[in-house]
Amino acid sequence: MLINNEFNEQKIQSPLQYIWHIFKGKNIAVIAMWAIIAMLMISIFCDYLMPFPHSQQHPDMLLLPPYWSDGANPIHLLGTDDLGRDTFSRLLKGIQLTLMGALLITFIVSILGVIVGATAALMKGFKASIMHHLLDALLTIPTLLTALILIVLFGMSYENSLIAVSLSLLPQFIRGIYICIENELQKQHIIALRLDGATNLRLLRYGIFPNIIEPFVTLVNRIFTMAILEITTLGFLGFGANSEQVELGSLITKSLELFYLSPYLVLFPGLAIFLIIIIFNIFSEGVRHSVIEGED
Amino acid sequence: MNTLLNVNNLSKNYRRSNGLFSSSVQSAYTDINFSLEAGKTLSIIGESGSGKSTLVQTIAGLRSQSSGEIYLHGTALSDFSLQHRCKSIRMLFHAPSDSLNPKATIGRILSAPLKLNSNLTAIERDQQIKETLSLVGLLPDYLAFYPNMLSSVQQHQVALARAMILDPDIIIADEILAGLDISLRFKLVNLLLTIQEKKGVSYIVVAHNMSLVRHISDHIIVMHNGVIVENDTTENVYSSPKSDKTKHLLQSHQPDYRK
Amino acid sequence: MALLDVRNLSIDINTAQGKIRVIDKANLNIVDGSIHSLVGESGSGKSLIAKAVLGLHNENWIVTADRMFLGNIDLMKLSSRERRKIMGKEIAIIFQNPRSYLDPSKKIVDQMREVLPKKLSAKHFLKKMTAKSTHQQAIKELLHKVGVQNDRDVGNSYPHELSEGICQKVMIAMAIANNPRLLIADEPTTSMEAVTQAQIFRLLFKLNQLHNTTILLLSNNFGSISNLSDYISLIYCGQTVESGSYKQIINSPMHPYTQTMIKTILEFDENIAHKSQLYTLPGSIPPANQLPIGCRLGPRCPKAQRTCVTNPEAVNYKGHIIRCHFPTLDEK
Questions:
Q1: Whether pTM exceeds 0.90
Q2: DSSP H helical segments within A123-212, as ranges?
Q3: B71 in reach of chain A (CB within 8 A)
Q4: Does the pLDDT of residue A2 top 50, yes or no?
Q5: Chain-centre distance of CA C309, in angstroms?
Q6: What is the ipTM of this complex?
Q7: Tens-place pLDDT, residues B58-80
Q8: Test mutation, B47, B52, B152, B181, chain C, max C CBs within 10 A
Q9: Which chains touch C (3 or more CB pairs under 8 A)?
Q10: B3-253 CATH choice from 2.170.120.30, 3.90.320.10, 3.40.50.300, 3.30.565.10
């Protein structure tokens, strides 16, 4: 981006504006972004969008197939389960629980992780060394196992599964951020800022954070994907939501026995999980590539 | 002339581990003694590995010495607060594309030292920034630009503005001429000389190019393997070098092949 | 006898802003057995000329020239396969930052073995057993030729263990392994210290004197190569502005750009006061999409007048070629 006449006419874009400009040109990522917004809207307003309350049973319409098959009742768009509960409503509620849960986890882990990681990276000397080795040790335990252990300790419920998953993903994020910030601290412009007399907070806000957007996006994406997978796995194993709470993983479990009678009951929640993960990843990749291209 | 800077018996050692249980002590530089007067330029030359970069980084405050003391205006630097030290001694780095924050505008880069080290109001800060920009030869329009939009000479100018904005006594230039073509080097040297005349700032320059070193310095220090092998005025060093290393350096700069 | 004769070479590149003429009617005439320096600042296009001669240019470059002859061979008429054969045998090239041009995962001996002449590499199984020692011998000789004394240590090292100076010497050894007629050195010593620079230049000088290798030296520093070269050509923004023998250029420079370049050699000028302002041309090098029309030095030239918006023709004064509307002519 060398100086030429164009800059006298064009407005100079800040890095964020430039990244947004590049992102808008990536069609698939923009589609993914709209899909995410749609899913968020569904999650927030699912109670109003549901045709029937998700736990309402219709004893006269059991195991109906989706509306495009024979013998279907169009009122129940995607059919019903063995207790006559509307699959579509349960799917919407499941998306709400899973998606919002994962977003909440990602949010908490990101905030806490950045605080702890930044503090650790700015520490020097012996304490920092201990912290570093501790984090490495935590990393060796598989996150799902950690979540399982924690949920057995806390007791099985949907809220507890969220807490357990957050705690299991926290070390990963902390370590990722810690390494990023450490790398950035070695750079010359940080040294120059230090020589200007910058406090650590100023160093972080202006010097480090604007420059680690790309690794940050990658980390957040990874945490979100793992969060979705762990919530649904815990639900599937029966450690998370119970039969009242309709989370996508537990939806699948309950429907497994009915697989031969009505495979759709397993298909739709599974498809929903798959789509959430794929769409989010496409979006993150788009953002990440925009950031990289924005840095030339 | 009052001596501005006095370096006494400065040494830096660091431990290097050789294997599991033993470690040896290596020295970056030993027993460094020199002084610098106001408004003068001191050049430090030597092969790579001679310790000159480590030495100037210690003076700038990036590293600490193992023993010895640096005196500025008669007071030991270790007695200075970080703020005071930052204001008196500023540093220019080798590659300005690395030393300027790529995500900050020039305006923010220049206002940061002022916000952190002085009590000026926003209007006074703006004034100071504009004055410093014109001192280094840049228009105020550049305040909204980002560093990667500037050419390498302009980046050096911004780095120089960042150094000069606190009105320091000493500026340390760590091999700033190396990455530039000759004509650009001349431009930068001209700028440094102009600023020295106008503001009376002293320079400590680490450089390679012997002919430019001769032109800009009053005093030259030659280092080899961490010790000073020659410490004299420019004229004396060029007309009658005492050390073999100096002679070797001078010779390799203008070798005579046949003509 | 001209080894390389390039006349009116022009290179156009298609960019987002349109077609840019990056090299504008450049001339280059290299005498066999001489050291010819092509001096220009970064971005002046010297590397582009070298690449065009070697045929290493991108597909979307449009290369036109009146003549491009290597000895008797017309380079413009060759196919890319023939071009590559010529490159391997007749022309060799070394670059800046030698360490990045060596394979970091192989030892030096292995890399040098790849460039040894074909007749030394044995196809027959029995011959392969004795081939190793012939290889070793050839590599040892090459390394000694370039001034590397401890060939065994250097040969067994990886590139990251060696200093830049030694890496450059290894590159030169690999370049001369096939006895090329022309050695192109593209800024071989930029970013090296003065002592190492002197070593490399001394080596190139020796190669030229002892083995009669013609050397085309591309450089951005007039002072460091002036003493070394037999002939000097200067290039600014893709236009060759002046060219001639060392004596002609140094004693009677005609072009304002040459005069500025000579002024960068501070030792020549006794009138420069200590700590005075140094002579530079006003302004800065124009970016590629804002090249001036006609003579590209025009906006910065102290002698510029209205005629300078037209491209000056090259005039030859007994081998001293100049392209300028207002050259400083000595009384001859």
A1: no
A2: 126-139, 143-154, 158-185, 188-195, 200-202
A3: no
A4: no
A5: 29
A6: 0.83
A7: 888 888 888 888 888 888 888 88
A8: B181
A9: A, B
A10: 3.40.50.300
